[in-house]
Design brief:
heterodimer; A: mainly beta; seven-stranded mixed β-sheet; four-stranded antiparallel β-sheet; 11 strands; about 0% helix; B: mainly beta; six-stranded mixed β-sheet
């Protein structure tokens, strides 16, 4: 596709439920990032993939959060036993290589998660 | 580890007057620095980036930023504000050899008619 695509764009779920958020990166981009943005805050790093492997998952807040990228393209962020504090916009981004090389990182429009 | 501080959470300027959004960074290595803009209910858009080439970087929509190593700053400027510039602006840093990019808390730019 032309840009990073995220689905769903909006998700309302009940506390305690399981949620999956999907990211389809720009074709050919090997690096994929997940960020979380709470109201009034800057995006907070969650996890970074290079290909199929999680190169850095130090930002995942706890073991309820997990992400996969089995074929090195589409990624799914999984949240178990959701809590009201998980409510945020979840942003996915991709780039051709590691972002530290100065390569531009392209963001999707985010998945708005509301836990009620 | 790298970090970034945006010194103002809100900035208000009149249309047609200059814009200055301040950013200071901390980096262990030679950093890459970016400015992103986020309009309401929209995704993040890259304005400009610095990657150790020219210290004065020109971006889209008339914005530019100057990398000053001695001051560890990367302030964003525009000579003349337009109503369409009203948005949230994020300063972003990444270290060479580190794959994370770190965002500042953002500066909300208000344009007064």
């Amino acid at each position: 596709g032309a840009g990073v695509s995220q689905t769903p764009s909006n998700k309302v779920t009940e506390k305690g439920k399981y949620v999956e958020l999907r990211c389809d990166p720009i074709s050919g981009h090997t690096a994929l990032y997940w960020y979380r943005q709470s109201l009034g805050q800057g995006p907070e790093f969650l996890i970074y993939f290079q290909g199929t492997g999680a190169a850095d998952d130090s930002g995942l807040p706890n073991d309820r959060f997990f992400a996969v990228r089995p074929e090195g393209s589409v990624s799914t962020l999984k949240i178990q036993r959701t809590e009201r504090g998980d409510s945020a916009v979840y942003l996915c981004a991709s780039s051709t290589q590691q972002g530290s090389g100065g390569n531009t990182i392209y963001f999707g429009e985010g998945s708005w998660l509301t836990v009620v | 580890a790298q970090s970034v501080t945006q010194l103002d959470s809100h900035v208000s300027v009149s249309e047609g007057t200059p814009v200055l959004l301040r950013c200071n960074y901390s980096s262990s290595y030679s950093p890459s620095l970016f400015w992103y803009v986020q309009h309401p209910n929209k995704g993040l858009q890259l304005l400009l980036k610095y990657t150790s080439a020219a210290t004065l970087v020109k971006g889209i929509n008339g914005f530019e930023a100057e990398f000053k190593k001695s001051e560890t700053s990367f302030h964003l400027t525009k000579p003349s504000a337009h109503m369409s510039d009203a948005a949230e602006y994020f300063c972003v840093v990444s270290d060479r050899g580190d794959d994370k990019i770190i965002f500042g808390k953002g500066t909300r730019l208000h344009i007064l008619p």
